[in-house]
């Protein structure tokens, strides 16, 4: 397993993991019909745009055969909340690669870059019903914010896990 910086050539692999992991993670949380309709070409276009954003840090995890099995993306906090500077926007692994310590390694890679870019603190948003909230708790995160979001026509609660000092998360990685 190798973690490396993503390039524009990786859009298909990233989009595939994104859709596949959404379908397994959000089953029972988001409507089946919506999950089944997620489209690879649309996601590829979104990721191409994301990868062109210079302030963003995106990394992929590859298995021994060079297949992309996960990705993580971070950068400046997106809502211009002046108290929070850094954010991990997304972290997804294919189901068969979860709970093997790869998520920890991916977070470490992106957090190291956010620290290099002098982000002092950190937030990561997750749907409140997502079992992966356990991951952020295990990394020392505390819920510091909550908001309602509309996805696939339904209202869901998102919680923001925060670290007042971004270096604190390194103690768990
Ligand atoms: C969330 C995710 C990136 C974590 O990566 P991972 O490689 O599975 O996690 P790790 O193996 O590094 O786990 C580190 C610790 O976090 C905790 N943890 C991880 N996933 C958990 C879960 N689903 N429930 C409870 N605790 C969890 C555990 O304490 C774990 O340590 P342990 O396995 O020794 O008990 C990955 O599971 C994933 O892609 N999940 C589906 C997509 C998703 O929900 N992404 C986040 C959207 S906000």
From TrEMBL:
Among InterPro entries, the record links this protein to: Acyl_CoA_acyltransferase (IPR016181), GNAT_dom (IPR000182), MshD_Acetyltransferase (IPR050276)
Q: Which CDD domains match?
A: NAT_SF (cd04301)
N-acetyltransferase domain: from which residue to which, for each copy?
1-173
Among the Pfam families in the record, one is Acetyltransf_1
Read off the PANTHER family from this record. Answer: HISTONE ACETYLTRANSFERASE (PTHR43617:SF30), L-AMINO ACID N-ACETYLTRANSFERASE (PTHR43617)
User: What is the protein's given name?
Assistant: GNAT family N-acetyltransferase
